[in-house]
Amino acid sequence: MIALLAGDTGVCYAVAAIEPSPTKKRTKGAAMLAKIFSVGVLLVLLLAKTAHAQGFNQALSLGPGQGYAALPSSTVFDFSTGFTFEAWVSVVDSHGPGACSTIAGKGYTTTFWMGLCGTTLRSYIKGVSSLFDAGTVPPNVWTHVAVTYDGSVRRHFINGVEVGSHSDAPPMTTNGSQVRIGSDVDWQYTVSGLLDEVRFWNIARSAAQIQSTMSSPLQPPQAGLVALYHFDGNANDAVGSNNGTLALAAAFATPNPAIFSITPALSGFWYNQPTSGQGFDIQFPGNGVALAVFYTFDNAGNGLWLIGNGSVSGNNKATLNLVQTSGGFFPPNFPADKTKIKRDPWGTLTLTFSDCNNATAAWVPLVAGYVSGSMAITRLSGIGGLTCQ
Predict the structure, then answer these.
(1) Is the pLDDT of residue 362 over 50?
(2) Cα-flanking dihedrals φ and ψ of residue 36, to 5°?
(3) Taking the model in full, what pTM does it have?
């Protein structure tokens, strides 16, 4: 049976088709499922959001422990009751315990600053008394970070997901200092690594707005966007005239594109196009969590649902533990005795993404009679409002 589900985003999904399976054989029922699946594919392709693979070209390379891009002193960086800072980072705080490293700042003792203390995202918006810590940035893994302020609440986001909030009375304070990316006039410890797609806004962006544009290079004009740095061979401002100048050991490098990092925009249905009858519903809700439903066949050719729960284990890889569920029913015939619903360990699933539309699924069973295997999978659908380009 193919189930089409209308989600909150308005995007419809179908159980995707993938084979070879980790099982030994298929049945006539599977062939019938494949025929039904072709209708589901058509509906999903008509309704789902298309994803396109695109890299981030070059990035600003800092360190170890020195170098930055200096921006001119400008009133566009004088924020009051609306502020968003965004950046892709693949960095490490290289100064040891008790010493924080700057991602960007205008003088942390009097105005705003964003950086890392160990692996913790820290921000100031009104000088040294406004310290706020929330969110973990893994070392040398491409991660999207954002800090927003709406005039009353400051929020931290990691890969588009809110990880903490703090009440702050308005307004943000300012000074006449230059903004530095990778350093600060009051705190010159820099991160070591790569920074890309640095954005300054004079509005507080929502989680949905951040997620909708975080996975691709942004093109101006955008409402509220006051400065944008792609770092593709220069530190020029793509919005206005606030071009940056490299200092000390800062340079440009061509890294693995940030687009290949796992973000919520990779969520959706995935399948192996030449085959049919099986598929994955893969979800990345944020905070490094990975979820998946794998519909396949058991050794008798019967439908088999495997539920996966795990974590992101690198820039582009997720590892999940699979369990086999039994004893449940679709509504309205839920079992009165919930203890009859069983979740038995089945094995592990590893998902490795090469871009927005292509990945590899590999499984290792624990249950006797099944064999290990892997296959290439392709995105079939995405989440409405999340763009992966």
Answers:
(1) yes
(2) -65, -35
(3) 0.62
